[in-house]
Design a protein that fits this description.
The protein is an alpha+beta fold. Helix content is about 25%, strand content about 25%.
């Protein structure tokens, strides 16, 4: 499936980012801290990066990247989501601006970068002899980067992953836009806090240090070591030296290409759908089932399919979707399958458009027996095999899994995700129903990178969203679908870019525009 035509349909838009920090929130949970998740009135689906307990802490503001685009005219909700995907991580077609990617790569640290900088910094850090914070273990350290503002405040710009049970962590390399780090001022203060992660969100402050983009850039030729200082401990203990050290192991600056740069260059997105047909979803003939085919409204599964598919198919040249089910007994012999084609065609599992997927899904519900167990690994590995065949950046694969959250092959699924993290592939999981989804949250490696047999995922390729967070209370299904689609599609551009960066794949030049045909000569 080819995702194209972005430049032709772009409209003037400005993407905004909001940073929110809360203090002295009421503690509404009996045995733990609150789980605040801000929503902006009148805007569909505005969410924080993570709705976890750490946001109750005053020292950890959170970034909201709502995908809002300021326009001069109102559009239907779903169409705004579609254009939001086009404009993700770029400002394409803005009057008076050049296309992102043009004329980059010749700037060096020390030169003014300005607001128009598209450079991206990649760095890796480690720490040594950090303070021990856990009673029964060592510490689970992570770093929080802040950019200083003109009024003396600080704005969060990056959080690293958590490295468990160590005082000498080595964090994975990460990339950040230079403009996010310094906002055009290479000498602007960058503050880094070191925390010990706690499951209940009461992260322990280990210490802090400051630097600048100019100072960080010197690590291109030398290691830089920073002392981690805790002001409270420094005041209380006369012999206090530090709370450990952090070493900048590497730092590099490269040109940042955009999602649309790759799409214009011919990169194609291939979407695959996988639907949970296990018995935990309930009997489809009963109204209590998550698969219940009501004559009056769509089920949660059908809504999730329709929400994402109606946006995706607008970018698809042939409008064909490979669609599978898993966890069912198939007629006539009752064989259990964890990757059966919804259209019952093993040779060609493609369905024509989202309506074709829905039709095949409804037909499968009438013919198969919901059973189990719930295995994710088979369908992940199937898509991964296709993604492994083409690694030159011309193809990128996205697997959408819709499930009720009960998973039976967690170990195998983690192994499949770790293996797939080196491939041009993303996995989106939409959870339906009332489950707590702890396993899905674990697979979504925003806080702790997924690992298997001591090997960590090369990239974070999994995004999990619970469907219930997007249901409009007034019963407006169109608004619910718009909210869900926006967040489901939000991470695809950055995950595609992260793969291209790790493989040093640059976008191909866009094909030349077709010249206008010459008018036919007049007949005498």
């Amino acid at each position: 499936m080819s995702l194209g035509g972005a430049s032709e349909r772009s409209v003037p838009a400005t993407k905004i980012e909001i940073t929110v920090s809360c203090r002295n929130l009421l503690d509404l949970d009996t045995f733990s801290k609150s789980d605040p998740k801000p929503r902006q009135p009148g805007v569909a689906g505005v969410r924080t990066d993570r709705g976890d307990r750490q946001h109750a802490q005053p020292g950890l503001p959170t970034q909201i990247r709502p995908g809002l685009f300021l326009r001069g005219e109102a559009k239907p909700a779903l169409r705004c989501v579609q254009r939001g995907l086009q404009n993700q991580h770029l400002q394409a077609g803005l009057p008076g601006t050049s296309v992102p990617g043009a004329g980059r790569g010749d700037r060096r640290p020390g030169q003014p970068c300005g607001a128009a900088s598209h450079d991206i910094a990649t760095m890796q850090l480690c720490a040594n002899k950090l303070d021990k914070k856990d009673f029964f273990g060592k510490s689970d350290p992570f770093l929080v980067f802040y950019r200083s503002n003109e009024d003396g405040t600080f704005t969060i710009c990056h959080k690293t992953e958590v490295v468990k049970n160590t005082l000498n962590p080595v964090w994975q390399p990460f990339s950040i836009p230079v403009r996010a780090l310094c906002n055009g001022d290479y000498d602007r203060t960058v503050k880094i806090d070191v925390y010990d992660w706690d499951r209940d969100g009461s992260h322990d402050f280990i210490g802090e240090f400051t630097t600048s983009y100019r100072e960080l850039s010197r690590a291109q030729s030398q290691f830089t070591v920073y002392e981690v200082l805790n002001p409270r401990k420094k005041c209380k203990k006369k012999k206090y030296v530090n709370s450990g050290t952090v070493t900048l192991l590497s730092f590099s600056v490269d040109s940042e290409f955009t999602f649309v740069d790759y799409i214009k260059g011919g990169t194609q997105l291939n979407f695959t759908v996988a639907i949970d047909f296990t018995a935990s979803n309930g009997n489809p003939l009963q109204p209590t089932s998550l698969h219940y085919m009501s004559p009056y409204q769509l089920s949660a599964y059908a809504l999730a399919l329709k929400a994402v598919g109606e946006i995706i198919q607008d970018y698809d040249s042939d409008k064909l979707f490979p669609a599978y089910g898993f966890g069912a007994k198939l007629p006539p012999e009752g064989r259990i399958s964890h990757q059966f084609p919804l259209n019952n065609n093993d040779e060609d599992p493609n369905c024509a458009g989202i309506e074709g997927v829905l039709e095949s899904y409804f037909q499968s519900l009438r013919t198969v027996q919901l059973y189990g167990p719930t295995y994710f690994a088979p369908v992940i590995n199937q898509v991964a095999r296709a993604a492994a065949k083409i690694s030159d950046g011309s193809q990128y694969y996205v697997l959408l899994i819709i499930t009720d959250g009960v998973i039976s092959d967690m170990i195998q699924t983690k192994e499949a995700i770790v293996s797939a993290s080196s491939l041009p592939m993303s996995i989106i999981i939409v959870g339906v129903g009332p489950a707590m989804f702890e396993a899905m949250e674990e697979l979504d490696g925003d806080d702790v990178r997924v690992s298997s047999r001591g090997r960590f995922a090369e990239r974070d390729i999994v995004q999990f969203v619970p469907f219930r967070d997007y249901v409009d209370r007034s019963g407006n299904q169109v608004l619910s679908m718009a909210r869900l689609a926006k967040d489901v599609l939000a991470e695809i551009p950055e995950q595609l870019l992260s793969y291209m960066r790790t493989r040093d794949i640059q976008p191909r030049p866009p094909p030349p525009a077709n010249p206008s045909p010459s008018p036919a000569p007049e007949q005498p």
